[in-house]
Write a structure and sequence with these properties.
alpha+beta, Chalcone isomerase, 6 strands, 25% helix, globular
């Protein structure tokens, strides 16, 4: 029960940070030169929350995974493969202890989103991206797209999730 409560609190914190921090991903919502034909979608910060995650190891970040209306509908209906038009965004921040919260708890147990690292997008368009399972990938750091070689490597990491249409994230309603 405690674990569920902590997960809900973490989800609320990440959703709150995502919603209330206009520059959390280090960029503006202006259009930027496309990478593999993908630009930062207008209004993506208003998309619905799919899930949150903490990635340990070298990355050690906290992530908010958002989806456009097409993605959310597919998740809710458990529809695989995802339909064309699905866009999934992953916003990431450094994972840092909250000194303010930890003072209240009397020990280090509270972590929050720190400085932004990047934002990534997966765009489903089976005609445009047939070689990568119908998905286009893009990553932006400080509002700038990474070089085109980097997103091409995204698909190789997503191959183990082929049974879930190359998506790692499960819906956390």
């Amino acid at each position: 029960m405690k674990r569920i409560a902590l997960s809900l609190v973490a989800a609320a914190i990440v959703a709150g940070v995502a919603a209330s921090t206009p520059r959390a991903s280090g960029h503006t919502d202006e259009k930027i030169a496309p990478i593999v034909g993908i630009t930062i979608p207008d209004g993506y910060r208003d998309w619905k929350l799919i899930s949150v995650a903490h990635e340990a190891g070298d990355l050690n970040d906290i992530r908010s995974i958002l989806g456009n209306d097409v993605a959310i509908k597919a998740y809710r209906e458990e529809k695989l493969p995802f339909p064309d038009g699905t866009i999934i965004a992953r916003l990431a921040w450094k994972y840092v202890p909250s000194e303010e919260n930890n003072k209240v708890f009397g020990r280090e147990q509270s972590f929050v989103a720190g400085s932004p690292t990047n934002v990534q997008f997966m765009v489903k368009d089976s005609k445009r991206y047939p070689a990568t399972g119908g998905w286009g990938f893009a990553q932006f750091t400080n509002g700038k797209p990474l070089n085109e070689a980097e997103p091409k490597t995204c698909f190789s990491c997503h191959k183990p999730a082929k049974a879930r249409d190359f998506i790692f994230t499960h819906y956390a309603p």
